[in-house]
Design goal:
Shape: globular
Low-confidence stretches: 1-6
Radius of gyration: 18 Å
Number of helices: 9
Order of helices and strands: HEEEHHHEHEHEHEHHEEE
Structural class: alpha/beta
Helix content: 25-40%
Oligomer: single chain
Number of strands: 10
Strand content: 15-25%
Length: 277
Amino acid sequence: MTALTGAPVTARSYDDLVGRVLAGDLGPDPRTRRIAVAFTTRQAVRHEGRGSGYRNEVLSLRLAEAVGSCAVEPGELPDGAVEDCVGADIARLLEHELPPVRVAALDAYLMHVLPHGPGNGGRPCPLPAGTSLEKSRARARSVVELIDVAPGASVLVVGVVNSLLEALRARGLAYVPCDLKGGTTEWGEPVRTDALAELERCDAVLASGMTLGNGSFEPLRRRARHSGIPLVMFAQTGSAVLPRLIGSGVTAVCAEPYPFFWLDGGPGTIHRYGGVL
């Protein structure tokens, strides 16, 4: 399947994007495209020099040459979910009862018809080889460059990643860390749990694509658009989805398709959309 050419494809909302896919507006009928492989990737991380670690789990679906992904909380995905996806067509999976399945299916389809690259609005950005921490910090610098605010501004960070917080401080930016899990950051800062309650006192929002899978993305997008606050997304989840929402509340996206930086010590590539660089 060749990529669509011309102006980058955009949608008014996540639901509008799903509707356009189901209608066949962006490519082949999703009822004729089936998932060949479904799998999960799990990791546990504790970088040297850091006082705490974390765990990740990601559901990925392969459609032809494309892989779509959605992160979930470890242990959240029920038994049988992966097997349920294999051989299923995209249209059925877009109506699946589990939100992560729906997101991964949409991501796989859009990765198939609108692959990352200049032809579809993306700017490739190389990641150097290195340790997982070195690559994490390199990615964080590339993400934070997309936030168009002056030093001293405050950024609401939805989905706490320590390397991103470091990169924000290096740019002279304040931040309000927010995550549904709560807790504290590596440096003992309290992590808020209600992003919408914090948004109005910040100058920009930096949010994880994981918000797509847990249902918090659309309220965040609508509020940011209504308030005129820049919304920058860093996306392993929905890396092919979120660029299609630039101009509809999303300002810029750093898209990182599977395989992610933490899976390989060699060089890699992320793709940046929107923003001023």
